[in-house]
Design brief:
Number of helices: 5
CATH superfamily of one domain: Gcn5-related N-acetyltransferase (GNAT)
Strand order of the largest sheet: 1-2-3-4-5-6-8-7
CATH architecture of one domain: 3-Layer(aba) Sandwich
CATH topology of one domain: Aminopeptidase
Shape: globular
Helix content: 25-40%
Structural class: alpha+beta
Order of helices and strands: EEHHHEEEHEHEE
Radius of gyration: 16 Å
Number of strands: 8
Amino acid sequence: MLQFNFTPYPVLRTERLCLRAVTLSDVHEVLFLRSDEEVMRYIDRPRATTVTEAETFIGLISRGIADDTDITWGITIAGEDVLIGYLGFWRMKPEHHRAEVGYALHPSWQGKGIAGEALRAILDYGFNVMKLHSVEANVNPGNLASIKLLERHGFVREAYFREDFLWNGQFLDSAIYCLLTPHR
């Protein structure tokens, strides 16, 4: 079984990005991301409506890191410290060397390759440092942009569940995508 240790926190850098811890200083950016209709359109979770709710979400992220049960990175442009999104691994199954990936990105940064660049960085970390064997993504089938992002990075659909999730009184479908570790 895998054991994770996120201390010290792993800051990841790419050509354009710095992926760093999400902190309480990011509360207003988190509130925007967790309340914006465009960002949350396919994230079937309650929208944040207050700073306190955004602080609670940041607290959940921080506890997951402290407990080594999940990890989320804040996405920033290198040289700037304004949070424009977040992504990470959660619902980790260390006994199966598997984790689920999730992400959100500010609408003004979508379509610019930011999500793909950040995803490549954490997949590299997940496979090479965390020693994951597989990464899954649970996607609303209507979220074509997310599906295309995953497929561009080698994810394949491995399951489709019809009306398996009840949200706001409506049963929704789920598509499960997976990426296996590259051969070493």
